[in-house]
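Reply to dn_fold:

You asked what the input looked like. This is it:
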Amino acid sequence: MTDGAGGYGPRGWDVPDEPASGLVRPYFRTGGRTRPARSLPIEMLVRTTDRGLRQERFARHEHASICRMCTSAQSMAEIAAYLRIPLGVARVLVADLIGHQFVAAGEAGNTPDGRPSVELMQRVLQGLHGI
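and this is what came back:
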């Protein structure tokens, strides 16, 4: 039994005939991959390389977004928050870009005693609040 807007699922739940246009499963964005090719800690800073700046076409629009936002160094947390995707998905996408040398990842700025700087911790916290 349907009402024209969609079918009925288990226990009378209304199930639309077509999925919402904005709904994309996270694993779809990574081609089904759930683990990055390399370790990328949440505080790892990512910056677009000259090659990434010159690249005009990317395999996924998220790759282009990451390259645009990382013209100044961004942490993995900030990338995930900006794209509104899970951190694991952001890690896979960034690892793809590193493999093509479109971005470079490096250790975050540390204080002389080896601890992360206050500025870095504030940026990571802001990124986490955005998730």
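Residues 26-109+116-129 form one domain.
Hope that clears it up.
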